[in-house]
Each structure stands twice: as C-alpha cells, then as structure tokens.
Amino acid sequence: MCIIFSVLAISCLKDATSAKPVAPILISPTNGDNCSTSQIVNSSQSTVDFTWAVAQGADAYSLTITNLETQQNAVESDIKSNSFTRNLTRGYPYQWQVKSISDAYPSEKPTSELWSFYLPAEGTLNSPPFPANLISPAPASEVDIIDGSVKLIWASNDPDNDQIFYTLYFDTVDGLQSPDEQYSNFTSTSIDVIVEPDNVYYWRIYSIDAFQNGSFSQVSSFRTSK
To answer: Between the chain's N and C termini, which has fewer beta carbons within 10 Å?
Structure first.
C-alpha cells in the first residue's frame, strides 16, 4: 500500500512540476531573406543550419521544411537540441517551422511561426520574389458577390527587397490559362474581378521583380454564390 502511495506521489509531483510546452521562437535562417549562413556543398546543394530558441516544456522538436515551388515536405522528428542541419537543393524558396514535443503533454504540440527563405543557386546575383501566399477567398470556399465582383487578396515579399509586379491568372478552367491583359503588371496585392453567380473560379499569382526574376503561386479556387 505504501509502495502504491509512493508511486502515485512521485507521479503527481512530476505532473505538478512539468510545464506545458510552448511554441519555439525561430532564429535562423532569417524570415524573408536570402539564406546567407548556408555552406555550399556543390553546384546543386547547400548545407543549411536551422536554429531556434529552447522552448519551455519541450523534450524534443519536430522540424518541417517545405520547398515552396515543388510543395515537397521534409519532416525531421525527435530532435533533442534546438538546432538541426540539412542539405537542401539550391535555387529554391523554402518555408520552415518547428513544433515542441512534450513527454508529459503528448497531445500538445505548439508550433512556431512559419518562416521563409531563399537558397540562391550558383551564380545568382538577385533572387526572385517568394511565391505569393493566396489569402482570400479561402481555397474551395463559397463567396458572396458584391456589386458583380469578388476581391482577391494575397501577400508576397522579395528576399532582396525589390519592388514586385504581379500578374493574375484567373479563369473557370484550371488557373493556368493565359492571363487577361488588364490583370498584368500591377503592384497592388489585391484586385476586384468580375464574376458570375454559381461558378467555380481558379486563380494564381505570378510575381516578378525589376530584374525579371519571377515565381508562381499555387492555384486556388472558389465558388461564387447563387
């Protein structure tokens, strides 16, 4: 009986002193920049050091790295320190985020912010803008028409802080058809488009800087209300 009580007491003490995990704070690679801290391996690969602040209550971390052009994910689990090194293909934009993992609170996995960086290719003097993040309408959502139109909103930035010009690809087929001239070469990150009721529309954004370096966003779609 005393043994059982002792075990319960130790268990309760552990629960009382174990802090819930908090989300990691990212440090490097810096958000929205060229990755200047990478070590070149060869013409196609560089070694990138990912670092973040030690998170309270975390026993381990999970790191997710996404190639923004190919949308391929690399997930590294059970990282015991607040850093990880990985070789990545040069010439692509990436996003990364880190989750805190706790033995005492396995269902809670607070996640860091989502940061992006560009890993320049060999001989690159100026990097293209990051692929635009399509914000509104939400993918596969139904949207009310206001005065015959719908507002499209996105966000984008450039690792070299160049001015970005946008072209909207907007159609009812697949978002890959030739863009209308009126939707080309503008600088606003939102635009009103004329739509018809009860139709599915597809759209994507092409971002280009003054050095003619460009990138495409993913295709998104929405349905207009009847």
So the answer is: N
